[in-house]
Amino acid sequence: MTTTENVRSEEKFVPIQTRSERPSSFEPADFETPTGREVNWKHSDLKRLAPLLVDEATENIGHDGIRYGVEAIDAAGVLVESTGHEAAVRGEVFTPEDLPAAIAWKQCSNALHIQIPEGKSIGEPLVARLEGLGADIHANAHIIVEALPGSQSTVVLHHTGSAAYAQNVEIIVRDGARLNFISVQDWEDDTVHASAHQARVDSDAYLKHMVVSFGGGAVRVNPSVRLHGTGSETEMYGLAFADSGQHMESQVFMFHEGENTTGNVLYKGALQGKGARYVWIGDVLIGEGANGTDSYEKNQNLVLTDGTRADSIPNLEIKNGNIEGAGHASATGRFDDEQLFYLRSRGIPEDEARRLVVVGFLMEIVQKIGIDEIETRIEALIQEELAAGASLAPAAKAGA
After folding, report:
1. What positions does the domain SUF system FeS cluster assembly SufBD core occupy (predicted)?
2. Residues paired with residue 126 on neighbouring β-strands, in sequence order
3. How far apart are CA 170 and CA 224, in angstroms?
4. What are 278's strand-pairing partners?
5. How many Å apart are CA 394 and CA 352, to the nearest integer?
6. Under 8 Å between Cβ of 49 and 196
7. Does 105 map to a domain?
8. In-domain check, residue 392
């Protein structure tokens, strides 16, 4: 190849930097296998996620790859049959934006569809327990959570066991509905999990979206919320605790499309042990017609030991200057020395003081769940992670 041909070859690859410009398709063939150069893959653990990049017939909802136990949902009468790719509602909001999501769409013919009846308020959390039955099984799923107008409910996806699992979650919050959605990743350490959440919030509707990740070898949960209707509102919260060798990742997208929409994003991460890594990328787009937008996003990471890495990348794209406000913030660091000094001056031993600082840092997110059982379980997971840590000595560096 000549020098001119080399230059032309290099010019063919132009990375897509703007979140709103990324391509989407239901066909896996329309996506090239990621190389790690792409902006949405360059921070990911592609080596471990590789099984989810293969388009082949795999296990499906209701088969051996993932065992689905749905608590409280049957009794509430909210399960809706969703057979085939052309089933009602499926695809109304969701369009795959990367290869694992397109493969999951293609290979999963039947969806789990949870529908909250119009005007109904369900006080009891609707918990779908998803248990992986083997890390050597490539399982795919499409899950629909639909809150009909005026309804109020909480839906929880609780993941356990081992799996190689690609998952699409489609969330629709119709006019005037209020939905709390929580996804808990409590996997075994041999699990790889790539999940794409896409949500639309209609007029005067509210969505609280939460991602809590503790277990798994490589866990990539990317939520996207489209504030479509006038007066729509979302709160997006995330919590991740990465141990030695674990890779936790969330690429968050909040799109203000309608007028007078409100959005708030707060994600926190904690890292301990050699090779622990947490990736957070937050993109906010304020559309041309989004007058009166009020938007804010923040990511905070606490580095507990040396040998970890935290990547925190906030982005803000504004196409309308007639807004109430927009901003973002990011911080990654070790323990607050002043907090430790205060606690130790009150007679609290150093190890206990460090534990209290970490728990206090993370519990700000946990307490926003609003469900005692789940909050208690997650607090216990935090304590377990800290107890399992080899050391809680302050890191010399805050990470990259």
Report:
1. 139-361
2. 155
3. 10
4. 248, 310
5. 14
6. no
7. yes
8. no
- Give the Å distances, CA to CA, from 371 to 4, 125, 134, 137, 377: 62, 8, 30, 32, 10
Per-block mean pLDDT, blocks of 10 residues, the chain (400 long): 45 58 92 94 96 80 56 70 94 97 94 94 90 89 97 94 95 98 95 98 98 96 98 98 96 97 97 95 95 97 93 94 94 78 77 82 90 86 78 44
The position carrying tokens 């507990």 is 304
Residue 370 three-state SS: coil
H/E segment holding residue 113: strand 112-116
- Find the helix or strand (DSSP H, E) in which 68 lies: strand 66-71
3-state secondary structure of 351: helix
| The two three-digit tokens of residue 262, written as one number | 């409100």
Return mean pLDDT, the chain: 88
Tell me whether residue 378 is in a domain. Answer: no
Number of H helices, E strands in the chain: 7, 16
Please name which of 43, 39, 175, 166 lies closest in space to residue 106, comparing C-alpha atoms. Answer: 166
Question: For the range 47-50, what are the long-range contacts, defined as Cβ-Cβ under 8 Å and sequence gap of 24 or more?
Answer: 48/192, 48/217, 48/218, 48/247, 49/100, 49/192, 49/194, 49/218, 49/220
Q: Measured between alpha carbons, how far is 126 from 144 in angstroms, rounded to an integer?
A: 13
Where in the sequence is the domain holding 27, given as residue range(s)? 15-332
pLDDT in tens, 309-344: 999 999 999 999 899 999 999 999 887 677 777 777
Strand-pair category, 206-213 with 178-185: parallel
Q: How far apart are the first and last CA of the chain?
A: 38
Q: Is residue 133 part of a domain?
A: yes
Alpha carbons 336 and 40: distance in angstroms, whole number? 32
Closest CA to 297 of 325, 272, 320, 273: 325
Structure tokens at 389: 């840590």
Global pTM value: 0.90
Question: What is the distance of C-alpha 318 from the center of its chain?
Answer: 23
pLDDT tens readout for residues 217-274 = 999 999 999 999 999 999 999 999 999 999 999 999 999 999 999 999 999 999 999 9
